[in-house]
Design a protein that fits this description.
349 residues; 7-stranded mixed sheet; binds NADP nicotinamide-adenine-dinucleotide phosphate; single chain; alpha/beta
Length: 349
Amino acid sequence: MPQSYRVAILGATGAVGAELLELLESRDFPLADLKLLASARSAGTTLSFAGEKLPVEAVGDRSFDNVDLVLASAGGSISKLWAPKAVDAGAIVIDNSSAFRMEPTVPLVVPEVNPEAAAAHQGIIANPNCTTILMAVAVWPLHQVQPVERIVAATYQSASGAGARAMEEVKTQARAILQGETPKTEIFPYPLAFNLFPHNTKINDLGYCEEEMKMVNETRKIFGTQDIRITATCIRVPVLRAHSEAINLEFAKPFSPKLAKEILSQAPGIKLVEDWEANYFPMPVEASGKDEVLVGRIRQDISHPCALELWLSGDQIRKGAALNAVQIAELLIEKNWLKNRVKATAVNG
Ligand code: NAP
């Protein structure tokens, strides 16, 4: 009989938490028990899972007793507080926040790219940033054929990237504007409905925001090289769900768009979406709810003989967060790495 596992979702009531619940059910994850954890605000509420109503508990000191695996999606400060306690209690934590991603001893894993890095975990495995995951899935298969030397990315990031309440805020703002009222802001610094603005994370001395630096640093760690030059401009757009990215890739030699299409049409986790005559390419509404990253509009960069342009849309709550985390959990089970606690000094990157 196949083994089953006691799983806890920390942040079960959030945008990523809802997707984790859906994926554990739809992928028939081998569950022995499922514990739903959130803040004290949600304690006593219930969430539906597999036709049952499961109670939500406030996370506390005993929450991780008898838990094999924690899927954490409650934000960085909550992960910093609770992930080490969960590991001490004997669980493995797959963390969706940025809390541990750049720790040298924590694997940063995209299963389509660097599954082997997960073997060296010491209790915590980090799920990369959502825009980074989507880009990594699309760029890695090309990088395998001819190393990418430079990436220039511009992102078009949906409201739900900032959580369930942010998505509601944009809907409320849109209704207000259509009724001639002034939109209110609470989660975002400015109205996002019928507007867009650069990603509202902290800006460093070089003028890059945190989201942009995540794309730079995390991609290098996942690809296991510091040699790729990467720059990004991250923009929040009034799309409810699924992020899009315009990506320019520079190689040492020319890379034919035809070959790039052939490679990407067979690559794991990708769906090639291109109908040039119909001007039909990846769109966030079509990427929403899908496992695959939609990639298209692959063309020669007319300004550089060795560069390619591509465009993608991917569901950042799904492949950019929850699905990637569940795939890591499935990988740990398949490879029997759940019980690994490698005392390595540094892992990938
Ligand atoms: P969200 O919709 O705002 O949900 C946050 C979750 O964290 C809720 O379940 C909330 O519970 C819980 N939480 C908040 N404070 C807590 C506390 N003090 N103790 C325990 N639980 C607490 O956020 P989200 O979008 O799902 O994002 C969650 C994490 O995933 C973040 O680290 C985010 O950066 C990361 N992530 C998000 C996306 C995305 O597209 N949204 C993509 C990749 C990664 P209550 O309902 O009780 O407040």
